[in-house]
Amino acid sequence: MALALGAIGVVFGDIGTSPLYAMREALAHSRADVPAELSVLGVVSLITWALILVVTLKYVALIMRADNKGEGGTLALMALAQRALPVRSGAVLFLGMVGAALFYGDGVITPAISVLGAVEGLRDAPGVSPELGRLVLPIAGVILVTLFLVQSRGTASIARAFGPITAAWFLILGGLGLYHIFDSPDVLRGLLPHYGVIFLLNNGFVGFVILGSVFLAVTGAEALYADMGHFGKSPIQAGWLVLVLPALLLNYLGQGAMVLAHPEMRENPFFGMVPTLVYWPVLLMATAASVIASQAVITGAFSMTQQAVQLGLLPRIDIRRTSETQAGQIYVPQVNTFLMIGVILLLVTFQTSSNLAAAYGIAVTGSMFVDTLLFFVIIRYLWKKPLWLAILAAVGFGALDLVFFSSNLLKLPQGAWLPLVAGGLMVVIMWTWHRGTRILAEKTRQDSVALTELSDMLQARPPHRAPGAAIFLTSDPDVAPVALMHNLKHNKVLHERNIILTVITAQTPRVRDEDRIRIEPFNDDFRKLTVTYGFMESPNIPKALTLCRQQGLKFDIMATSFFLGRRSVVPSASSGMPLWQDKLFIFLMRNAANPTDFFRIPPGRVVEMGAQVTV
User: Fold this and answer.
1) Nearest alpha carbon to residue 433 among 93, 92, 102, 83
2) Which DSSP state fits 416?
């Protein structure tokens, strides 16, 4: 129950703020000549079955079964799919990039629309002057900027309150809905699916547009899978089925019943439901729920970045831990700044949650479609199910995703282009980094000396020996590291003990300490040491080296020198990438985090040696 309560606070924050605007936006797009009763029943029906099919059936019942050692999310699903295939697939890798990039686009819009949608309740608050209503935008801006500024302090203490606050919010949603259902009990007919179909047919092409607004009710569904590693499947499933889904259904039914009884309330049905006596407490709870939803997305962006760096999709980036006990508590300054600037620009540009609603949804539908395609690989190759079953699942859910995605595409002129542009830029950056690092590795390998060849040379002409141990970091343990070659060339020395250290990332979230290191004796001069981390872990080389004692390899960190190769890359027209992409790759390399900091190596023990490489 404790885990379920925690999951309610973190996992369901985004979908819990959808009632603030989803019904309003869907009703606003309905054609004027469609009967008011059919509009309400149709929207209620569409939202109900979207929650059942997309969230309950697709994510809660099926996709959550495809966990990667307990972890979820697009990149975890991509890593699981890569492991299931006999050979690594470029298509699966690209899908993972697209899903991760769209998540960043969604991460910019969610805080803006959630907080703005809640604060806009000020305009309808009893006894509030129009002057205070005009302060909605500045108040939302102050709340969001404050939220981003406190990220560096960590959120462990605040997060403890997330569960109870969000659980109380869902009880409020359900209570308000149940109270207003009696305004017009006929709204219960909206639970039947055929009302949604009739409503769409009566609206014609406009009905297709309305689906984009209906989808706002399920934004946040992908968080159920993405945050699975924090709480586990059972608590999330229990939280959804026992509290969240019933509360959401009751609230949407209550909004519908109130609009049936009072058609003038369709302009802002959620806050129209709130009795004057409790208006201010509900407004404060709505604001708190929107802040929690924003926090969940920000934390998700930090975790996504860590995974992308570990999987080689982004350059090394400064990742700071804000808790000594909780591994998931991290802070990424560059991502935090990027999100904050993006959110403020959105507030200034769009100014209302209705305007932002046009931009919201397309990133989520795209991300869900990516999950469906990756899920096909899991069903077919990991679970070994028949091809027809895998195709049936992919076509069924894929068609649903594409309908919603196509509907949201119609909003491109109103702002839906924004998350697509942001996601497209992230895909370009990820693909450039992945492709550039592969080209650089191939180029370096061509220009390098094999370690076996170097050993033969050293036996023929023994160099001067320096006391102590030297560790040479390299991505390819079969060739002599650049730093080692420069040390021999310029300093004319070789240490008594030399370790060729390679850090690799597993296709699993975490690696046990027993499997962390692998020592491979090469000859009297060299040993190969491989350190493995999961894609949810942050490297810590000194800590990993302490595990070597169990295998007979002892280190005194303060008497060991770490040699790192720093490559200066020069663009070339014949690199395999366009010149502009070469320049982008070089820019990313120059702005990557210092490997000394990234690997937690004591700065006083590091020697960096440079080399120029043309790509």
Assistant:
1) 93
2) T
Helices marked H in 448-605: 451-460, 482-486, 541-546, 579-590, 595-598
pLDDT at 23: 92
Beta bridge partners of residue 527, listed in sequence order = 499, 521
- Measured CA to CA, the distance from residue 104 to residue 335 in angstroms comes to 9
DSSP-assigned states of every residue in 74-94: HHHHHHHHHHHSSS--HHHHH
Asked whether 317 and 338 are in contact (CB, 8 A), the reply is no
Number of H helices, E strands in the chain: 27, 8
How far apart, in whole angstroms, are the C-alpha atoms of residue 445 and residue 72?
35
Residue 520: how many other CB atoms lie within 10 Å: 11
What local confidence, expressed as pLDDT, does residue 444 receive? 75
How far is 339 from 111, CA to CA, in rounded Å? 9
For residue 133, what are the CA distances in angstroms to 124, 275, 336, 369, 404?
8, 19, 29, 39, 34
Structure tokens at 487: 């040390």
Looking at the predicted structure, is the pLDDT value of residue 299 above 70?
yes
- Whole-number Å distance between alpha carbons of 247 and 261: 21
Do residues 615 and 571 lie in contact, with contact meaning Cβ atoms separated by under 8 Å?
yes
> What is the reported pLDDT for 158?
62
Tokens standing for residue 476:
């390819």
The pLDDT-based confidence of 210 (bands split at 50, 70, 90) is confident
Segment 98-114, tens digit of pLDDT:
998 988 888 888 899 89
Distance CA 373, CA 391 (A): 10
Q: pLDDT, tens digit, for every residue of 568-603?
A: 777 776 667 888 888 888 888 888 888 888 888 888
Both tokens of 392, joined, read 């049936």
pTM: 0.84
- Smallest CA-to-CA distance from 58 within 289, 367, 384, 311 is with 367
Measured torsion, CA atoms of residues 25, 29, 33, 38, in degrees rounded to the nearest 10: -50
Helix (H, G, I), strand (E, B) or coil at 1: coil
